[in-house]
């Protein structure tokens, strides 16, 4: 069953003029968007190791949990003195 075609009506457009709006600025928010985005492009060899973004995030979280933190003493077991 086909949808009934609707005739496009621009009833309100005649009421508005370009002069009613402020001047457009190209790329006004480009710096803000670039600063807020965090896109990392993986090399093809690395990308083949991960089926999706969840797998990448899981591996990175695991790496962060297991990293050595500088400036903190290691948690070695202590031996009692004889």
Entry summary:
The protein has about 80 residues and is mostly helical. It has helices at about 30-35, 45, 55-65.
Question: Mind explaining what this structure looks like?
Answer:
This protein is mostly helical and 82 residues long. The chain has a domain at 31-68. The chain is 30% helix and 0% strand. The protein is built from three helices and no strands. The protein has helices at residues 30-36, 44-47, 53-66. It is elongated, with a radius of gyration of 29 Å. The termini are far apart. The relative contact order is 0.05. The mean pLDDT is 81.
Mean pLDDT comes to 81
- The strand count comes to 0
Helix content: 25-40%
Largest sheet: none
Query: Approximately how much beta-strand content do the residues carry?
Result: under 5%
Key features?
mainly alpha; 3 helices; single chain
What is the fold's blueprint, element by element?
Layout: H1 30-36, H2 44-47, H3 53-66
């Amino acid at each position: 069953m086909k949808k009934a075609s609707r005739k496009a009506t621009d009833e309100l457009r005649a009421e508005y003029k370009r002069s009613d709006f402020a001047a457009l600025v190209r790329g006004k928010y480009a710096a803000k968007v670039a600063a807020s985005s965090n896109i990392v492009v993986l090399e093809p060899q690395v990308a083949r190791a991960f089926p999706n973004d969840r797998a990448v995030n899981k591996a990175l979280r695991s790496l962060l949990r297991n990293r050595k933190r500088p400036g903190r003493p290691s948690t070695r077991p202590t031996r009692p003195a004889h």
